[in-house]
Amino acid sequence: MIGSFDTSGCPTIKIKVSGITGKPTEFTALVDTGFSGFLSLPMLSAFPLGLVLSGTMNITLADGSTHVRLTCRGMVEIDGSKKIGLITLETGASDVLVGMEFIAKFNKQLVVCPKNSSIELIDAPAPIPKPVPTDQPNPPPAP
Predict the structure, then answer these.
(1) Which residues of the chain have pLDDT under 50?
(2) 102: how many CB neighbours lie within 10 A of its CB?
(3) Residues 6+ apart with CB under 8 A from 4
(4) d(CA 117, CA 128)
(5) CATH level 2 (architecture), domain 2-123
(6) Where are the domains of the chain?
(7) CA 48, CA 14: separation in Å to the nearest integer?
(8) What does the pLDDT read at residue 143?
(9) What DSSP element (H or E) covers 100?
(10) How much is the pTM?
(11) DSSP class of 10
(12) Burial of 99: CB neighbours in 10 Å, binned 0-12, 13-18, 19+
């Protein structure tokens, strides 16, 4: 998936979000690597999507302050791939944010090149297996 930079120089991608009763709606989302969650939506954008409230959660902002946010589950689609995740709802916000959980859940890695004004979410490589320790004794030290 190829994204772009907004007028402020922030990396963005196009996503589709839907709830139980709403049809998928496209958003331009800021990619926020400082956000550990899946997706953050302005509350007013959430209502037409048919998202159902699932509870609340405490979030800690960059300044260290903690706030309570409403949450819901929703479906997000990128490049034909769909994942369900926990969406936090923000009052008074206008930006849609995707965070690190979003990138991990879609098994992507973020490639940003400001020099070329390019942003890509590419498939993450398969994890490298860790070597399995053997139970063989260490050889004696050389004389």
Answers:
(1) none
(2) 26
(3) 11, 12, 117, 119
(4) 31
(5) Beta Barrel (2.40)
(6) 2-123
(7) 18
(8) 67
(9) helix 100-105
(10) 0.81
(11) -
(12) buried
